[in-house]
Amino acid sequence: MNLPGDDSKKPTEEVSVTEVSDSVLAELSDIFGTGKPDAIQAETPTPVDDATTRALPTDDATPTEMVVIPDEISHDSSEIQSGEALNGFDSGEIIFADSSVGIPVDPLLRPLSGVADVINIFDDNDGAVVIDADLMDRVVIVDDDRPDPTFEERRRRRERRERLKRVKWLKLAGVVMGFFVLVMAVLSSSLFAIRHVDFEGTVYTSTKTITAVKKSLKGASVFTVDTAKARSRILQDPWVADVRITTSFPGHALVEVSERVPVVWYVGDDEKVRMVDARGHVIDVLTGWPTKYLQVQGVGPSLDAGAIADDAYRAAAQLVLALPDEIRPKVKSLDLSAGGELSMILKGNTVVRFGPPTDLQNKLVAVVVLLRRQDPATLAVVDVSTGEPTVQTR
């Protein structure tokens, strides 16, 4: 073929497909179609329209090659243009058949209208692919099931963030705990130590107990002193019924004691006196006989101080506390029989029998009413053990 503008004419060589070896033809057949080499026949092709031949101008010094692309490509993969069909062209002209005909189509793409309407996207570099939906009908993303190369890195980053979060909370807890320990150390220091301890309400409380409690409180911080321990120590004293300990800044402690009140007393087997309060507690053990309190005649058990006496002695003490002011001065003593029956002896030797120490309130009401109506000096015995008063006069 002669180039435009080139005055010299050079001989051209004619290239025929039939001159290609069988191995090359077989290789081309595997690439472009499923047909076998023997299916290629030397037929005289229809001449290609000159209008479809497009010249690609190049440098004037180089011969130009013509590439002929048919306007309509046959999809018959069993035949390829033979070398005789190229006889009408120059040796520099090459015709390409439709190479996509022989490529197997993905089964997922068969229902689509055409291969050109489908785009297969392979994201090999973990990059973002942006597709304009207005320029294509359908997009098929093929997942080749390859592992994400950044998975391990993301997992390590996530674990590191979790570790940092745990460390942050541990540090915060450590700071709070350290601050708490510092505050407690300051509050328990000698800066706030108790230097003065005062007692109130201690009349019969043991001096030994008071000294021991003072020693345990002095020197301790007003904020951290163990007041419960000191209170327990004071309550061990038989005379103490209740106690309250308060501390105040900068170094003062107040101990308020409520002592028990003796009501009656009795003589034990060891001939020692037991002082009993209204709840039946043995407050103290004495060798002498007191004159300020009423005696329960008879011999009782030999109990130590701090023990609880029988219910009969508790009932006797409660009866004495319940006596009205008009009768209390007339009472000489109480008597408790071996059978557990309680009696009250007046100063005129009048005996009031209460019987078993039960329902003493109603029995006492009947006695008070009777003594208001009659002079006790005219009465020898008043019996209210059955609930109804009976009288024996002198």
Structural overview:
- The structure is a single chain.
- This protein has 394 residues and is α/β, with parallel strands linked by helices.
- The protein folds into 3 domains: 17-95, no CATH class; 190-259, membrane protein fhac (Ubiquitin-like (UB roll)), CATH 3.10.20; 264-393, Rossmann fold (3-Layer(aba) Sandwich), CATH 3.40.50.
- Helix content is 24%, strand content 21%.
- The chain contains 6 helices and 17 strands.
- It has helices at 22-32, 151-187, 207-217, 227-235, 311-322, 360-373, and strands spanning 53-55, 66-68, 94-95, 118-121, 138-141, 196-200, 240-248, 252-259, 264-268, 273-276, 282-286, 294-300, 331-336, 342-346, 351-355, 379-383, 390-393.
- A 9-stranded mixed beta sheet has the order 11-10-9-12-13-14-15-16-17, with helices on one face. A 3-stranded mixed beta sheet has the order 1-2-3, with no helix packed on it.
- Strand 16 and strand 17 (390-393) form a beta hairpin.
- Helix 3 packs antiparallel against helix 4.
- The chain is elongated.
- The model is unreliable at 1-15, 34-103 and 108-120 (pLDDT under 50).
